[in-house]
Structure prediction request, 720 residues.
Amino acid sequence: MGKLDLSRRSFLKASVLAGVSVYIAPMGSRAFAALFEEKILTPVQWDASNGQAKFRIDGIAKVTGSKVFARDIRAADMPHWPQQQSHAFILRTTQADRSYEGFDLSLLGDELKPDRVVTAADLTRDGLIFPAFYGDDMLLPPGKTPAYLGQAVAILIYHDFARFRFAKDKLKFQDQIIRYGAQTGPLERDPWGTFRFVRVGGKTPYDDDIFSSLKDAPVFPSMMRKHQPVWPDGVEHGKLDEQGMFHAGQIQQELDHPSADWLVLEREYNTQSIDTAALEPDNANCWYDAATQSLHMVVPTQAPSEVADSAAGMVAKCAFPVKNLFIHPCYTVGYGSKDHFNVPFYGLVCAMYADGRPVRLANDRYEQFQTSLKRHAFKMNYRIAVDKKTGMLQSFKAAMEADGGGRCNFSPSVAMVGATAAQSIYYFPKNDLSAVAIASRAIDAGSARGYGTLQSMAATETMVDEIAAQLNVDPIDFRLKNALRSGMKNTQGAVPAGAIRVDDVLQKAKIHPLWVNRAKRKAEFEAAHPGKRYGVGFACVQKDFGTGAETSFAKVEFSADGKIGLQHTAAKIGTGMSTSQAIAVAKWLGKPATDVHVAITDWPDLPVVTSGDPYMMSQADQDKLAANPRWSPGYASPSSATNSAFYFTHSTREAARVIFAHGLWPAAMAIWSQGGGGGQAAPLVVRMEDARWVDGKLSAAGSKRCRSNSSRRRRTSWVW
Prediction:
């Protein structure tokens, strides 16, 4: 491997996991500066008057094509790696209703025969077990029916690019490569997850609930029958789940036999399985150095810590001894597609069987559509009741089916979040919302942006528009009448935190010229353009953001010459995070950070330990662990769940605030207190809340007590 510089700025030691020393070495660290930040990042060009960047910190590199992603890295780019790059691709099934009986590579002949073929038998023999999160049969053994379309059966490794390229092209779209046996039909499996949220509110939206998931309990199936959930019987004074089903039955009865004043609408909505279309397809480049028992992984990921933890566990007990694991997270394009995706671990497998050579595994665009994580397809049956006289929503019953595809991934929580967010901006006195994440032969679905809510809330908005039309009321007025206000309960019986400003949004939209003049513009346009149609629609949604267990680190520092540095746990996935975080410090420090490093996972300046499950931990356990001031229920969240919009920025701003409050502000006060004249300075009365940065200078409106006996004050502006 050669001599490694293990200084903190080059390799960042994260932890020892399962007996493997793990190092996180972001490509932005000094060891790789020649490839990355120092060449592609430019200081933020920003407008101090409005705090907005003129263009992204990596904007020039992006438009000139010089930005470096994980996909661009080859062995020759990596210090201490062998210079020869090997390549690999994966054979996959294209049918999932017949048994898999092996593969035939005779089409390649001797000239294009792979240097190494890896199958399920190799993984079993050598104890290479993928992380449990991803399920079984990451390479399918013969004799089994594929669980889904595109299931991997073998990895083909080549030590030279030309043969790799010719072989891959020759095998593509050749159905005879994979051998199939008897017709079995698709596998039938229990759902990945099933949830039901029943709520019956009190007399007003602010009274205690009669029944709700938060006050009582969510309802779960009592059993599965033919892979379908069987719900408990409804009993008014029975167990909690029986009580929930009793109230669900009452809601059903009201919708089936509504009062004369009710309008009950029932509709079915469907969304497709959708590719996230990440412009950087999934890839990994990995090298196993047997001489030093070290594994190196260059990966695009939204969650460097997750890859490190899972990879360490994967190699801890395998036949290939690994003492050191080096993870190099790179700039990538994610949006959910690279959050808990399995390609890094296929890359790990490639490295173990490559005879000491680095192996690059990279999807082409076809392979990306065939295998990458998708947005869940949803089937939604909605029934909503509204009082025709008052225009007030009365109840909401929904049955949702999210297609999780062949592997579980995050499907249970996506289905749950889709159901809990379906109410969007509206208050419903009663609801019965169920969601099931089914296992199917479709391509895996994961945590695509929106996390199930784009599907469920779009359906809700469509239905609300139709209800408004049937009631012959303005769609925005109807929304205003039924909007969830601060202090009201959601469909689980929880009161959303903070001030809810949806009525402000609706009031502004209502008076917008595009909305006010829509009928007139429609008539004018259609009269002037026969055969064409003009319309203005409206929708307004709201959802939670974050996971409920968000954690992040940010380090802000400035040098003697006034340059501001920022380090952050966030990974750069295409959201403009490095730019937004660079600007976030300006509120307190007067200008953006100029030296930005991301995907940092080791924080010796602030050593924190973590343990337990933040979602399942009891209050007693949390109180006990919290006695240690260095304990946290989480360490570093993935760059997902809209983190950079709030949580990551909060860490950055708070770090900058500490510098200001305990560094810059005391220094400014000391300078201002000297005054402009000789003799002893008068006491200075300036509040930190009045501090402002103007043209790069710190100023504050304050007063300075006169040196006479008079109690008069004079107002002035202090600039530093």
